[in-house]
Design a protein that fits this description.
Layout: H1 2-24, E1 34-41, E2 47-54, H2 58-70, H3 72-82, E3 90-95, H4 98-126
Parallel strand pairs: 2-3
Antiparallel strand pairs: 1-2
Length: 129
Amino acid sequence: MIENRRQDRVSALIQRELSQVIQRDVKDPRVAFCTVTQVEVSSDLKYVDVKVSVIGGNEQKENTLIGLKSAAGFLRREISKRLSLRYSPELRFSLDDSVDHLMKIDGLLKEIDDENEATESSEQDTGSP
């Protein structure tokens, strides 16, 4: 249980610092439109799985991942400088597609709402209860 709390604290710290470094210090334009959404640290604190959300199409998302992977060494050094960890963890990046799912669900809910409004207005026009 103590180990889980430590992992959670380290994850939160890494997420905050990594977000700042990506936004302020990485000069690669491919990573300009990404947001760190989730960070999971392994139990030995040697590996960090970083999920990022990217604004744009599939090509933009792929380019962002390539940019992040090429900047991984720099990001790893910066995290190591900013946080006092025994090991400098290896960063592994992947896309977080939960935002895309939320947008799709939101669109479907709006369609259903529009259909319901159309049905209600047609029922009122015909005088049906």
